Structures are given as structure tokens and as C-alpha cells.
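User: My notes are a mess, but here's the protein and copper (II) ion's SMILES. Can you give me a structure?
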Amino acid sequence: MSLFAKKLLSVAATVTALGVLIGLYVADWATSYPKEITATSAPANSGGVNLTLEAVAAVGAKYSPQHPEWVSYLVRTGGRWVRSTDYIVPANSVVHVTIYQYDTPTGLRNPFLSQVQGTVGSTEVIDGKTVNSIPPEEASHTFAVPELGVFVPLPGASEEGKHPCEEAPCELNSDHRTISFSFRTGKKGRYRWQCFVPCGAGWYFGNGGPMQTLGYMDGFINVV
Ligand SMILES: [Cu+2]
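Assistant: No problem, the inputs look usable. Here's the predicted complex:
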């Protein structure tokens, strides 16, 4: 075999190996969906279902060995916190959402999103107080389902708090805000939801990483 042929062969082998690795990476990325979590049924007389979430500043190695420092949502199911942003709720019903928010403020880039929209009564309850907006700079995350017209800004925990939660799962003895609201579902469908606060610290304009990866700051509401 000539030297040229040997070189050509080794280049071809390297390109093939790289191609396989890239393929595996893409396949892994494209198929790693968070698992679907069914909302729990609310007490009989209140109707609808309950969805209990928490938003954390760092998800930790237990929930995400690859990205322990990423900001994330978790959902309460079967008595524990699970990292998933893919939820199942019934059609034509009311979803009662409670979010424990442990992260500090980042602030909204678009202040319009600091108004509560699309919830029952167009309000949210923050630490027991009913409001229809928050100061845009106090937003830490949002829970927004654009196709359903639902936009709920979530205020940050105090930056001076004495008991910040370092990583998930965060429990109620850490500094947090408690937010609750309800929204109505209509027909069946798969609706994207996401955070609109540029909370992906260390990423381009705060919008990369956890902001663009399913299972952290965005997911799906499966109305069935
Ligand atoms: Cu966020």
C-alpha cells in the first residue's frame, strides 16, 4: 500500500469514527425526553387536578449528573421530587398549580410578561397574596403555556435570605416563595410550556443550556 493510500485510509477511518460519535450524540440528545408525569387528582369537591412544582437554582448531581449546576423545574409525584417537565392533565378541566420557587430574581427582558394572563381570574397568589402582576425585575422564572394564553411570572426568593437552597431537591425550610394559580384546559393536545426569564446563567444572553433543553426550563403539557 502506498503512503498516500495509507493516509487516505486513516483519514477515512477518522472521519467515519467521528461521524459515528456525532450520530450517537445526536441520537442520545434527540431521544432523551423527560418522562411524563400525570397530575394528581384534586380533592373531589374542588374539581380538576393538582400540579405541584418547584423551581431550583441548581438541580444537583443526583438529578442531572451531566448538568448539576443547571437551573431547573421539578415535579412532585408519589411523594417525591422528580426532574420532569412533561405533564399529563385532563382535557376540559381545571389545573391547580402550586410552585415553590427557590431561585433568586434574574428579571424579565420583556416586562409585558410580568402580567398574569390566562389563569382563572387572571391572577396568581404569591405567599398568600392575590396579584395580577409582579415587578418585572423581581421575576426569577415564568410558567408560560403560550398556546393556551397562560403566562405566570414567578418572583425570586430574597437574595439576602439566610437559608438558600444549594441544590435540588429543595425543601420548605429553605428560602422560597409559594405561588399558586389555576388554569383551564380545553381540547386535547400537546402544548409546549416554558420559562421566559433569561435564567440560563453563563449562556448567550441567558437563553442557552437549561433554557433550550427539555426537562429543565421547558417541557410539554399533554392534555388528554
Ligand atoms: Cu427560568
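The radius of gyration is 21 Å.
User: Great, I'll file this with my notes.
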